[in-house]
Amino acid sequence: MNEPIKKIAVLTSGGDAPGMNAAIRAVVRACTYYRIECIGVYRGYGGLIGGDFVSLTAREVSNIINKGGTILKSARSQEFKTKEGRAKAYENLKNEGIGGLILIGGDGTFTGGLKFISEFNFPVVGIPGTIDNDIYGTDRTIGYDTALNTVVEAIDKIRDTASSHNRLFFIEVMGRDAGFIALNTGIGAGAEEILIPEKDLGLDRLEESLNQSREKGKTSSIVVVSEGDKIGKNVFELADYMQEKYPFYDIRVSVLGHMQRGGSPSCYDRVLASRLGVSAVEAILDRATGVMVGVTNNKVSTVGLNKAIKMNNDIDKELLKVAEITSV
Ligand code: F6P
């Protein structure tokens, strides 16, 4: 007979994402609803190792659903990659009487969680929180939708100045090794070309496409470059190469950077985070472990953490076609 679960811990780890606070709020309030205590862990796995815990009540998570970042802070812990670090974390959870752990993060977070489960057989459930959308088993990760909107807004502004000065802009967006942000914002902002790691466009195609744009009378162009794309060593090198080869272009580079991770979450991310926070608590109470909760086809679903990090989400071929057709 399993002992009843009286306390659940929650942490945020890896790159922060808008909507993480909404997920924390939902976890805390689901714990209140099911009459169990919720323990917040500061600084991700670092706080788990250091015993940096705080008891969270429903009132303490008031007015955070609309806030970017994470009230629990986030980090990438080197110590949790060691056996000794994970053992300390386990001791702290046990000493505190915690019966389950909810991880809000991406693939690095879930990799650490899987290692922890394999060593200590502790109940762990993941919630996908990353702007990159590179997690299998959910249509979208928390933060992705907000990041898309932030990026489109930024590109719209760059387009204004690109158009005024007849310039060619290379705009680098985040996504680590995944091109979801680049492909979707490229379409949404009407980019002339989109460079993503999943599809090697090749320099020749890029040059041909920009030449065609000129011939068709376009006086300014936007190329959205995913940070993981391999066409040049980096966006600056690519721009330098193009400038040398095509001196008549007036080229500029804009790296959007960490502003993509900030800001108030969109309604979509708030609802997604709320659904996943509640279902993660329910999964722990149902004695699930080693799984991630997600939303697929608008239904809450679960998938093994190992699948969530190892099975790549494929880039939608239909989107690639739409990008090609609409950028003429
Ligand atoms: O995983 C989220 C992400 O923002 C990636 O898109 C990016 O490659 C990385 O994190 C940046 O990490 P850091 O904040 O450590 O520079």
> C-alpha Rg, in Å?
22 Å
Question: Which spans have pLDDT < 50 for at least 5 consecutive residues?
Answer: none
Q: Spatial order of the strands in the main sheet?
A: 3-2-1-4-5-10-11
Total helical segments: 11
- Attached small molecules: 6-O-phosphono-beta-D-fructofuranose
**Helix content bin:** 40-55%
3D structure, described in words:
- It is a single chain.
- The relative contact order is 0.18.
- Helix 7 links the parallel strand 7 and strand 8.
- This protein starts with 6 loop residues before the first strand and ends with a helix.
- The chain has eleven helices and eleven strands.
- The strands form two sheets. A seven-stranded mixed beta sheet has the order 3-2-1-4-5-10-11, with helices on both faces. Strands 7-8-6-9 form a four-stranded parallel beta sheet, with helices on both faces.
- The radius of gyration is 22 Å and the shape is elongated.
- The chain is an alpha/beta fold and 328 residues long.
- 6-O-phosphono-beta-D-fructofuranose (F6P) binds next to loops.
Secondary structure elements and pairings:
Elements: E1 7-12, H1 20-33, E2 37-41, H2 45-50, E3 53-56, H3 83-95, E4 100-105, H4 107-120, E5 124-128, H5 144-164, E6 168-173, H6 180-188, E7 193-195, H7 203-215, E8 221-226, H8 235-245, E9 251-255, H9 267-285, E10 291-296, E11 299-304, H10 305-310, H11 317-326
6-O-phosphono-beta-D-fructofuranose is lined by residues 15, 106, 130-132, 174-176, 227, 261.
